Amino acid sequence: MNPKIRIFLSQKLRDLRRNLRWFTPGLGVKRWVGVILAGTTFIGIGFGIFVLEIYRNAPETWWLPIVSFASLRVLERPLRVLIFGGIGFGLLLGGIWGLNRAMVKPFLRPGQPLVEGISTHRRRERGPRVVAIGGGHGLSTLLRGLKSYTHRLTAVVTVADDGGSSGRLRKSIGILPPGDLRNCLAALSDDETMMTQIFQYRFGDGSGDLDGHSFGNLFISALSEITGSFEDAIAESGKVLAVHGRVLPSSLVDVQLAGEVFVSGSSQPTVVKGESNIPLAGGRIRRVWLQPNNPPAYPTVLQAILSADLIVIGPGSLYTSILPNLLVPDISAAIRASQALKIYVGNVATQPGETDGFTCGDHVNAIEVHSGSGIIDLVLQNNSFNGKLLKGMQWVTIGKDSDLMYPIYEANLIDETEPWHHESIKLGSVLMDLYQERTGPLVD
């Protein structure tokens, strides 16, 4: 066969296969094609009856032979039905495809086929209900990895942050700290381009009172004043960034994190107040707690946890990101009561001033000491130790297996460019594999 003809036929076959994907179960297209086809059929029947009535009762005129020829009366009736039905069905599908493409194309990524975009959206809409608990860079990485699999994501973030831009806004206008919430919104954004970059933009030196502030933090602060509530400001910010999923504060109470730290050279622990001050104390952390004690959880968070299919705790700073969420008693109780698969994601490396020398077992033990047992079903830990860590960091290893009472799954989770961080694609893929092992394959 001529190579050009073979290439042409191959291209047409690929186009046909792509178009047939419109009939894939779950896209929600076939039902509406059926409705449109039924409506078109009734219109056609009515119009045919009208034309037939004119044709039978009209006097002999010059245009009747033209109508007779156009209606293919020289052919058998079944063949005429097939010809006109085929033409009509083809025009119908072409019109629907063109209309949908014209309406949806502005929202597709460049070069992405329409059917693929709809298929991906439908698959993620039916994805598992996932609740991610943590904060900081680790939680943002986790969300970037999971958003490729499901739109039913809920990120639960601590409100104990008191450093940087968030701390300054918290002190000056009394708003709950928006920093971690802002980072999670940016991570969940469908297209992290210009709008997300603006949201994450931080004013530099020479900006006066704005120096060090993030535009997103100021935006959320302004929205909280306009809407009258912090939670509404977060929801509206999500709409601006076209976020699929939710970012929720663990509590709406203005809490402060406090801890007991064994400072070097001291036999008695020192009480340190403030989430940003605890790692700077330069000692071994004994325990942390919230002030005021026992704050009520945000009710929507409890609903999300109790209805979740998968709960992921971590990665993130153990004492200043993860535990402040679990120290809200209602949240720990809801996790314990949930029927979801509960996975703790261990950190890749220790955090200077917070978890120096910690093994994976030390992290898990700290969680149990502060929030009790029964909130973890499985531990996911990195087992790749290639690359150079930053000064003061060490790799987090399993340590003694007997120290852990939970099943452990090890995998290569590191980011090759920043080995002290997790890689979002690797992390999301492994978590979904572990979930599917328990529940079966995800519906495509």
Please characterize this protein's 3D structure.
This protein is of the alpha/beta class. It folds into two domains: 7-19 and 26-124, no CATH class; 126-159 and 250-439, 3-Layer(aba) Sandwich (Rossmann fold). Helix content is 47%, strand content 12%. The strands form two sheets. It has a seven-stranded parallel β-sheet, sandwiched between helices. The protein has a three-stranded antiparallel β-sheet with strand order 5-4-6, with helices on one face. Strand 1 (130-134), helix 6 and strand 2 (153-157) form a beta-alpha-beta unit. The radius of gyration is 30 Å and the shape is elongated. It starts with a helix and ends in a 5-residue tail after the last helix.
